[in-house]
Design brief:
Elements lengths: L11 H26 L2 H19 L7 H11 L3 H6 L6 E6 L4 E8 L18 E5 L19 H7 L3 E4 L10 E2 L14 H20 L4 E6 L1 H12 L7 E7 L11 H9 L3 H6 L8 H7 L2 H16 L8 H8 L8 H13 L35 E6 L7 H6 L6 E5 L6 H4 L3 H4 L1 H12 L17 E2 L2
Helix pairs in contact: 1-8, 3-12, 6-7, 11-12
């Protein structure tokens, strides 16, 4: 009798979704090939027609607002350096060689607006803050803001911090290895494990070597928080180098996606993603669609996708900010790292990558195998969580149960996931909380752990 793949684990409705998904990917691949060979004049014609149609339907205002002008400037900036230059900041570029051979790009903002560092590439004597982005992102997401007062890195620089921004292996600024080229599947054979074992600790060590500082403060967003949770839990000595870990929209073991078909299908068999996207980078055609679509149309497409997948309506982010930021949202990531997230969701545990997922599973009362979990309760570094109370990916009670007792949590009312980066009121709701925590734990280099137990106001301590 012929075997039906995954029989008993997914329904016939899920099989229909699987077939539909493969059909869509095949159609998209064909369109991608056609567009590659189309003359630029034809692509430009379609772009102009879509722009004309959009303005006719949307009835755009005749006079551009200040935010609209800023949005256009951010939209057209090509990289991190140009985004910083829009607001008068001069950045430095650094490269880190990880122990397993990946070259990671680091960006640094050592001096205030309109100033240049007197000692480029060296120590500034200032307290150091390291920011790390989320999944499918790069360092640009921190600075693609229509108002400098809402960009956390710029505010930190003006407050006297030496600001560094990291990048994961494989993304726009880290697409090189001394062992494999980016066209090789071996280059993309990495998951959250590799970020934790190498990218985060190696980046932190490089920053401390350059700045001659004893410790730094870590601010992560989304997957950037998961990477720090994992790294601090498996590198005990790394805890001695981080005076506070501030987790924005923290991610550890999210409950799942809002789209039931996708959620059920991927949890049933996470490795189906390898069948959909191969074993290299995921959604690699996103940059192609972005280049040929009129930006407001692209922004609305992203909005619809976020609503469908995560139930994020992003009402706290203005449309001008979306148009500006979504152009810098996507960066390359491995399919394996996304598979890892679905393994975590399926098992409701913050675990290491499960290499044994394709082996047959015998269901008994006592399991004979369990993937190793990141021992996050062993983290010594002070932890501050800032999370949106409307974020579908954050289940705060589950997260706190996996973290040490000194963890502090602060809900942000009506905030979703991306709102914490680009919301219209982050300068009032998010950035002051970050500054308050930094001042408490690392002001003037003092060791707050030896002082009294008074916590920053407005923060809720884990019971």
């Amino acid at each position: 009798m012929a075997r039906v793949p995954l029989r008993g684990r997914i329904s016939f409705r899920d099989y229909a979704a699987l077939i539909l998904g493969f059909s869509f990917l095949a159609l998209e691949a064909c369109l991608h090939i056609i567009i590659v060979f189309l003359p630029k004049s034809v692509i430009d014609w379609f772009y102009r027609r879509s722009r004309s149609l959009f303005h006719r339907i949307a009835k755009q205002p005749k006079h551009r607002s200040e935010e609209k002008r800023a949005s256009d400037n951010v939209l057209n900036a090509r990289d991190f350096g140009e985004l910083c230059a829009l607001y008068g900041y001069t950045h430095e570029e650094h490269v880190v060689l990880t122990k397993d051979g990946y070259l990671l790009g680091l960006h640094r903002l050592p001096s205030k607006m309109g100033q240049r560092s007197g000692n480029p590439g060296g120590s500034t004597g200032k307290p150091v803050v390291y920011l790390h982005h989320g999944l499918l992102m790069n360092s640009e997401v921190w600075v693609c803001i229509t108002d400098a007062s809402r960009a956390l890195p710029f505010v930190l620089v003006e407050q006297g911090y030496d600001v560094w921004l990291g990048n994961n292996r494989g993304n726009k600024y880290s697409k090189k290895s001394i062992h494999h080229g980016p066209n090789s599947s071996k280059f993309w054979d990495f998951s959250i494990d590799d970020f934790a074992w190498h990218d985060i600790p190696d980046s932190i060590n490089h920053i401390l070597d350059v700045t001659k500082a004893d410790k730094l403060s870590y601010v992560g967003f989304s997957q950037g928080t998961a990477q720090a949770f994992a790294a601090l839990s498996i590198h005990p000595r790394l805890n001695e180098k981080v005076n506070v870990f501030i987790a924005l929209a923290p991610a550890m073991s999210p409950p799942g996606l809002a789209a039931p078909i996708v959620d059920g299908l991927m949890k049933a068999s996470p490795t189906l993603l390898f069948l959909f996207f191969g074993r290299k980078s995921i959604l690699s055609s996103a940059t192609m669609w972005q280049s040929i679509m009129y930006p407001p149309i692209f922004a609305r497409m992203i909005d619809r996708s976020l609503i469908w997948l995560f139930d994020w309506h992003s009402n706290n982010i203005t449309m001008d900010q979306k148009i500006a930021a979504y152009a810098h949202l996507y960066s390359f990531a491995s399919v394996k790292s996304v598979v890892h997230w679905f393994q975590i969701m399926r098992n409701a545990a913050f675990q290491m990558y499960d290499d044994d997922v394709l082996s047959p599973v015998v269901r008994t009362s006592v399991s004979s195998y369990r993937p190793a979990r990141f021992p996050t309760r062993n983290i010594i570094t002070p932890i501050v969580l800032l999370y949106g109370d409307s974020d579908s990916l954050v289940h705060i009670e589950t997260m706190l149960a996996q973290l040490p007792d000194h963890t502090i949590a602060k809900p942000l009312h009506t905030y979703e996931h991306l709102d914490i980066l680009w919301g219209k009121d982050v300068d009032k709701d998010v950035i002051p909380e970050v500054l308050q925590s930094l001042q408490y734990y690392c002001s003037n280099g003092e060791d707050r752990s030896a002082k009294n137990n008074v916590k920053p106001t407005g923060l809720v301590v884990k019971e």
